[in-house]
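Notebook entry, cofactor series.
This is the third protein in the set we're modelling with a bound small molecule. For this one the ligand is fe (ii) ion. I'm keeping the input format identical across the series so the outputs can be compared line by line later. Sequence and SMILES below, as received.
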Amino acid sequence: MSIQRLGYMGFEVADVPAWRSFMTGKLGAMESSSSETEAKFRLDSRAWRLSVSKGHTDDYLFAGYEVDSEKGLQAVKESLEARGVAVKVEGPELTAKRGVLGLISCADPFGNRVEVYYGGTELFEQPFASPAGVSGFQTGDQGIGHYVLNVEDVDAALAFYTGALGFQLADIIDWKINEDLKVTVYFLYCNGRHHTFAFGKLPVPKKLHHFMLQAKEMDDVGLAYDKFDADRSIVMTLGRHTNDHMVSFYGATPSGFAVEYGWGARDVSAGWSVVRYDRISIWGHKFQAPA
Ligand SMILES: [Fe+2]
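Returned structure with ligand:
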């Protein structure tokens, strides 16, 4: 039994108020709670999907992977422990804070916090309504999206995420960032979403390269693009990726790492065959220096 989908994510951010207006105004997420030190946001019927906590790193804080039952959680715990990973069973305080029935946590080989849970909170009685008019986000069985981490050791990352957590490799891209720099990025899936987690030894100062949200309509992407373009915070222009066929752009967040905002990805299905690519995009995705 492996993890089934990305259910939530947390970032540590220096400027919580800036993130509140960024999440709601630019990305179209719905704020569910906020204080001076933390804010949570909805993307669908769940009580929350993204959180920002005040701190100095402006980086990845945790990823929360969902399983469907207590039995599934126990199986992931045993899989981690069988590979020598120290697992903490979280108590009532954190499970209540996350709004879940059962929660374990561990660290990946680089000290990045990984949480696994079952029993998230549904709020069907308070329908999701995007404050920016976004038609909705592709979540459900595919989870909330994907994220890409900068790691020191790709072999250790592959061993942990495929071995202990049960991801499968979808493909790799030998990404020629410029004439002198080529980086191999590994794309992993745990459900129909082409990749939920990807990693590489990336030339960025942070652990988190970007996170991705998938909108339901292409117009959601276009309308968001105009907002990022208006304050010159586009990082990569509109383009379509070679591997997941996502049409997306990349924008700057208030913390320096990027957000990918996309639509129209293809899914992995039974019989998926691992391949490699020489380019990240079929067209577009040109770097642009933010203002
Ligand atoms: Fe991405």
